[in-house]
Amino acid sequence: MGERISISTPDGEFSAYVARPAAAKAPAVVVIQEIFGVNQVMRDITDGLAAQGYLAICPDLFWRIEPGIDITDQSEAEWKKAFELFNSFDVDAGVKDIQATIKTIRGDAGCNGKVGAVGFCLGGLLAYLTATRTDADAAVSYYGVGIENRVAEAEKLTRPLLMHIASEDQFVPKAAQAVILQALKDHPQVEIHVYEGRDHAFARAGGEHYHEADAKLAGGRTLQFFQRTIG
């Protein structure tokens, strides 16, 4: 279903997986990866957004470390590799690459000019920073790791942001959640949903903590949010 395109930056080129909807022109959504690269889970999410009518694109944000990472969460060796990538990743450069992705897909013949973003895990942090640092029209953050250290950036938020937080997230402890909620719950651009009893990556199909009902609930809220904000 998907295709590969190249995105240019001052530092070089990287690839992105693109899935196109049936419509000739549509809003676009940038899908921001977890720590496992542009893997089957991310491609399935991208394809799913295209099926819902969006021009969806998932950029390879690990290209500066190792292009083409495509691993799963199913083995200890892959988890080890994923955390090595996470620890080597330059968040600021990653946000710039997301901005380059937004610019590229906004200029695509199939885009109507509106661009949203949705990110998971590491991508959840990047989705938050996409909302504060880029010209994306809307962003959705799933269980973003490290947002509590960057809540001051919320003063730059001028576009809508939807946040999904897992109450028992092993990578976002209760104290971190409290910081996020205190800083953002009354922000006019921010909508937050907390999923009680859920652990990190509750929406990752096939993952250890996948919860079908709450994944569907969060997915429905995400689609409604995009329909409201980018069409």
From TrEMBL:
List the GO molecular function terms.
hydrolase activity
Which domain of life does the protein's organism represent?
A: Bacteria
Asked whether the keyword Signal is assigned, the reply is no
Q: Which InterPro entries match?
A: AB_hydrolase_fold, Dienelactn_hydro, Dienelactone_hydrolase-like
Q: Name one Pfam family in it.
A: DLH
User: By what name is this protein known?
Assistant: Dienelactone hydrolase family protein
Pinpoint the Dienelactone hydrolase domain residues.
14-228
Source organism of the structure: Phenylobacterium kunshanense
Bilayer-crossing regions? none
Would the keyword Glycoprotein be found if you checked this record's keyword annotation? no
Provide the taxonomic classification.
Bacteria, Pseudomonadati, Pseudomonadota, Alphaproteobacteria, Caulobacterales
The entry's keywords: Hydrolase
